[in-house]
Design brief:
alpha/beta; 2 domains; six-stranded mixed beta sheet; 13 strands; single chain; 9 helices; globular; Rossmann fold; about 300 residues
Length: about 300
């Protein structure tokens, strides 16, 4: 479990990044921090692995204050995936993935064997193992970044706008891949994004931040859409947009989900059993909606 207790971060010169932030993140939970620039979301995430230390307050992992932990050892125990992957350009794909396990004492042979397994898990062609980052597409680089973040089998995975630098089609694919990985691996994920749709897709819970790291609302995507805390949240999530305002119409004997602009978004069907092939999505809609991406 990750805990933030009355955390404040003020930089030299008086810039206040985070005013007073308190939150608990449960083990195996995926939490998305979402907000505009200046909302403190990246600062908060970097407090977990001590890339940033709070001015006051505490950040804890399983009840232990991270301020008392060795920062290098802490960072090596936590997976970290950033925008544009941050791969080492002079190392091959395989060697990029093995970096942290080798630093932690794993033999190169064992680390490379695990790296090949992770390439398969994140959907990378084994033939890419000997290539360098510059020889990969943006989507492939991000998959390598995810594999590297998982290489030491961390309990916690921090993701700082990891898919922000790729095109929308690849981004959608990577988001789906992360959802699949989370169902299989059940890591504790802290995911930073400025995109509310991405936050709703990835997060079991979503934390919407105002400037200064002030919490506007915390909840599941369903809870936030059903009852925005105030006008700021309603505007931020687009609660009044046509794509968000859905209703059901009976068409040729079937219940069709239609948005406020009259566009079909899917077909309503009985919710499948949890864990089935058509497992319910985090936004509460069934994945069996006429072959289309359900509304987010």
């Amino acid at each position: 479990m990750i805990g933030f207790e009355n955390v404040r971060k003020e930089y030299p010169g008086g810039t206040l990044a985070v005013e007073d932030f308190t939150l608990e993140i449960a083990s195996h939970e995926a939490v998305a921090l979402v907000g505009t620039s200046g909302s403190g979301k990246t600062t908060l995430m970097r407090m977990i692995n001590r890339m940033v230390d709070p001015t006051s307050g505490r950040v804890t992992i399983d009840g232990e204050d991270v301020a008392g932990m060795n920062p290098v050892a802490l960072r090596r125990s936590i997976g970290y995936v950033m925008q544009a992957s941050g791969l080492l350009p002079h190392r091959t794909v395989l060697d990029n993935i093995t970096t942290v396990p080798v630093l932690r004492g794993t033999s190169k042979t064992a680390a490379r064997e695990r790296a090949r397994e992770l390439m398969h898990i994140v959907g990378l062609d084994p033939a890419l193992a000997t290539r360098y980052p510059a020889q990969l597409s943006g989507g492939q680089q991000q998959r390598v970044g995810v594999a590297r973040g998982l290489a030491a089998d961390p309990n916690i995975l921090l993701m700082d706008e990891p898919f922000g630098a790729v095109d929308p089609i690849v981004r959608d694919e990577l988001q789906g891949e992360l959802q699949r990985l989370q169902r299989e691996l059940r890591k504790t994920i802290v995911f930073v994004t400025h995109d509310i749709d991405e936050a709703f897709r990835i997060g079991d819970r979503v934390v919407i931040l105002r400037p200064g790291g002030r919490i506007a609302q915390v909840g599941t995507p369903q809870e936030i859409l059903a009852a925005p805390a105030d006008d700021f949240v309603a505007s931020f999530v687009g609660a009044d947009r046509g794509a968000r305002t859905l209703h059901i119409e009976r068409i040729e004997g079937r219940d069709v989900i239609v948005d406020a602009d009259g566009r079909a978004a899917g077909v309503l069907s009985a919710a499948p059993a949890r864990g089935g092939a058509d497992e319910d999505r985090a936004d509460g809609t069934s994945a069996s909606t006429a072959g289309q991406e359900p509304p987010r």
